[in-house]
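Holo model, adenosine-5'-triphosphate. Inputs:
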Amino acid sequence: MNATTEIRYSEIHKFFNRRHLLNRLSLSLEGGTATLLSGENGAGKTTLLRILSGLEKPSECRVDFTPGEPGSNPQPWSQCRRRLQRQVMYLHQQPYMFDGSVVHNLALALPRTMPRLQRGKKIRQALEWAQLEALKEAAAKTLSGGEKQRVSLARAWLRQSRILLLDEPIANMDRESQVRTVALLRRFKNARAALMISSHNHEVFCQLIDRRLVLDSGKLSPAQAPLLPGNVTPLARDGAPSGNAGNASR
Amino acid sequence: MNATTEIRYSEIHKFFNRRHLLNRLSLSLEGGTATLLSGENGAGKTTLLRILSGLEKPSECRVDFTPGEPGSNPQPWSQCRRRLQRQVMYLHQQPYMFDGSVVHNLALALPRTMPRLQRGKKIRQALEWAQLEALKEAAAKTLSGGEKQRVSLARAWLRQSRILLLDEPIANMDRESQVRTVALLRRFKNARAALMISSHNHEVFCQLIDRRLVLDSGKLSPAQAPLLPGNVTPLARDGAPSGNAGNASR
Amino acid sequence: MDLFEATAQALVLLAVFDPALWEIIGISFRVSLTAICIAIPPALLAAFLLAHLEFPGRRVLISLFNTLLSLPAVVIGLTVYLMLSRQGPLGDWQLLFTRSAMVIAQIMLAFPILVSMSHAAFQAADQRAWETARTLGIPSPQAFVMVVGEVRFGLLAAVLAGFGRIIAEVGASMMVGGNILHFTRNIPTAIALETSMGNFAQGIALGIVLLIIAFALNLSLQYFQGRGKLSL
Amino acid sequence: MDLFEATAQALVLLAVFDPALWEIIGISFRVSLTAICIAIPPALLAAFLLAHLEFPGRRVLISLFNTLLSLPAVVIGLTVYLMLSRQGPLGDWQLLFTRSAMVIAQIMLAFPILVSMSHAAFQAADQRAWETARTLGIPSPQAFVMVVGEVRFGLLAAVLAGFGRIIAEVGASMMVGGNILHFTRNIPTAIALETSMGNFAQGIALGIVLLIIAFALNLSLQYFQGRGKLSL
Amino acid sequence: HISAQQAHGGGKLVRLATTTSTDNSGLIDHLAPQFERDTGYSLQVIAVGTGKALQLGKRGDVDVILVHAPTSEARFVADGHGVHRHVVMENDFIVVGPRDDPAKLGGAKSAADAFARLVKGKSRAVKFVSRGDDSGTHKKEMTLWRDAGVEPAWSGRFEVGQGMGKSLQIAEELQAYLLIDRGTWIFLRDQTTLEVVFQGDPSLGNPYGVIAVSPKRAPVNFGGAKAFIDWLTSKRGQRAIGDYTVAGTRLFTPMAGH
Ligand SMILES: Nc1ncnc2c1ncn2[C@@H]1O[C@H](COP(=O)(O)OP(=O)(O)OP(=O)(O)O)[C@@H](O)[C@H]1O
Ligand SMILES: Nc1ncnc2c1ncn2[C@@H]1O[C@H](COP(=O)(O)OP(=O)(O)OP(=O)(O)O)[C@@H](O)[C@H]1O
Ligand SMILES: [Mg+2]
Ligand SMILES: [Mg+2]
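Output:
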């Protein structure tokens, strides 16, 4: 797959409520690959993604932006916070909409320097993808749960980040939107972005992802149970399953 | 099934943004039955449930609390608002937690007059169901998305409402919690409560529900496509499928 | 400058519980705390209704309360004076130049700022707080208390602003209290008196005394506002 | 009561643009609007940092700003007076008894209330607003402006409270402005003067004039705060 | 202390509205305890501007007033608001100004001459602070301008609309001339660099009158007011006024019976 490691995190540790929520984990985000992060409710998926993207302070963490290169050395998280926020895009489990129309919310993701015409075109494409043309002037705060998630993904597409962390991106979406989301994420991946998706809905992503990590008791490990592409066939129409088929067992 | 109609709504109408979101619908909530409400993102499911529970003002709606009885007559929604709020319990798509511990949040659902001992016992049962014993003293606002949904359901169980409207109750839950939720809802149903569940995740509920309504273009209609219980078999362990098996088509 | 000297002197008087100084401190805080305690419940209720009820004229009413913030204290003082004056409609109560009159004027002073600020706090509250409380079967009065609890941080700021307005206010207290020694002289009117006599240092020293006591009050209130930061 | 007469008379003077009346109105609003405009940006920034940054002493600093709300205006007036007085450290600037001196005093008066109230507003803001802005690649200054936009309702209340405090304030303006006719006499000091002369009706009439103009200002500001109610 | 509310309306409480000059100079603090001891009344003092003091009397909110504005006092009595007016004491007005005395008031022969000199050059360098608040002092100033036959309008004249003490502070800051009553001046002179530049003219007299508020218009404590006036005009009261000194200087001259 020839993946290029974008960022390497090590010694990720988070201590809360007398509990080691994340216990000295290491993790790399690699361009052109998609990782599914699974784990029970409260396992720490959201916390982990927020630490990776520079939003939540870990108890400890070291970050290396040029792993493997000669002379590279990991720096403490607190020194990299702003750089992480700039480079890594995090999509909230419950997306936040700014006051104003849907178009306004989409426009925020575009660089200010972009020429007007190009902006308009980009936003139109995003609206089309999110299937929100009819609501483009509606106040974004009044959108339905699933519509907000679509706006949030459309913003991610407009922002064109090289590293994308998605927290339950499809939880409130209808089936068609879920399929469209997977297709969009595939485009990101083909453009060599690094993707990390936290989700309880593994089947939807089975054809997209390259690896699946399970967060349990503060530790990260590759998933034992294989994915079950068969379970989503009624709706998954594009491409062949990439996971290897097998029996369901848990 | 011998269902008793609890409340009958008619002429439900909601007009927003120059759009007839709900277009003169009628609906009954029947004790001992579970209804799945499906529809695309933005179809108006949340809006409908909120109207039914007296939280959101419809453009028009009439409510009949004693349908079928002699002398019953439907009243305008605005006159029934408080009664609806009291009788119908609505679970938010994104549950709200009050400041304070998980135990505090659970205790809110119990009547103030309940004796201390009984309160403690009930709360312990609820914590056990929600599998939050370890977090019972944690600040509820800091819980993870799925944990909040579990607290919200535990509150519903403590409240013992006869009519329960659930807006995407399992969207952020892990698989095990989903199954437990279905089992809990079955207990509600056996206790002759009226359930209405909005969800994009039909398969999980296929063994529970009695009917499936689709909201589309402001109209409510019985679902055409049959449910596919086969899709969830890996996790659904209790009881036999109640939907009739068939081919997936959409 | 003799400012430090005067302040030091005032602090010494404070520390040795000088009766003259503590008398005016006592009058100040007794009057203003009474006024704020009376004003808070109706003000919170009004603010809550303004934030949550839709009724015609709601926006105008909000604007009106915001506007009343610009009403000079002395005008409120004058109005209360005209009511309580022997020839005024409430002259028979014989309240003029008493602490009760000061309490009345200060309630009127605090009310608009309490309503306006608490309204902003309630408006910023998550609508689901109220809805969840109702849906849990909690009766409206308790649900109101729960929403108050959820926005207590903003409400505390409102109360502090209202209290600051009346504890530091001189025009209305002067007008309806009369700045009578031993009866209605409080810290701000005493400061005004000292200042008008050119005793600047004493004036500032009294101000610092007021601040120190307000600060102590403040710190002891802080535990109400809890951590204040919410995650998500 | 001659109150109605005096008010009617004041309103007539207002309507026919009586130069004497409009002069003091002009001075009032010019001074206070200048002061509030200068105070807002640093106050908002301070409030934002207090709400979003974790640093030692943060809570004490917040308490301090809350406490400063209780500082009598006349004490601030005195402090500015002592700075600007001929013998004071800034005496050479020759600002005492000018409108600039009033602006300085009013900035100091407005600052704590602006910080305290805006801090409450920022604290109530959804943390995701800032995070989402940052994650969309928006630089910190613009992200700050966006968060300001999200809590503009609470901030507007803060600004109105701050403006109300200074437009209606008499102690400091009297002290550093001197209530000099044609130069530094503004509405509150004019009201104080009328009151001290026993012209109570004129005092109230001037207060009503102030209110009317503040109300107009308020209504015109309202469109900023938008609908104010958020669903979900 | 008895609470104000109990005392109010009861016959033992007397409310006095007086000008800031008598209160700020410490005179009332000097007199009140003696009066209370001698008569058994208790005195509440409300120190305000002359106009407001008269207004409080008119509305019956105080029982007795002590002010210095002869014309207004006479009208107050003539209109039936007050009775038993007595002139109880006097001090005089003086003109203070900067040490270098730019308008050369030091050489003035009369008050009229002094006030004419102020306006003469209409120079910005000559500054004058006017009370501008319709108080006794301000009324006196306007009379003096009229007597001097000049129009008091030049860019150096500031109407400040504040009390005597504040006006002195402003005059000090601006290095301006100011008409001030001697009582306040003696009390506050240590705080300024200004000096007396003109004094002693007979037209600068400043008599203080005491008036009981008429019981016909409002239910005031007339007995108490009467007792206060009687005490103030008695030998004991007059001696108490004469005894009051600041830094060795007598502030007010007793006048009752003149
Ligand atoms: N700020 C905080 N303070 C204290 N505890 C916290 C905080 N944030 C999260 N937690 C705790 O950490 C645990 C992990 O939360 P997190 O949101 O990371 O879980 P998650 O894996 O994303 O779960 P879900 O699948 O339900 O979204 C939760 O039990 C929560 O109570
Ligand atoms: N207060 C409001 N003002 C204006 N439009 C609104 C308001 N609330 C909802 N809407 C609009 O109504 C539509 C239906 O919203 P609703 O939340 O009911 O959908 P839903 O069926 O629950 O969708 P989802 O499956 O995504 O949760 C949305 O397009 C939304 O933009
Ligand atoms: Mg999560
Ligand atoms: Mg919904």
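Residues 227-232 of chain D have pLDDT under 50 and may be disordered. Residues A 135, 138, 142-147, 172; B 16-17, 21, 39, 41-47, 93; D 231 surround adenosine-5'-triphosphate (ligand 2) (CB under 6 Å).
Archived with the compound record.
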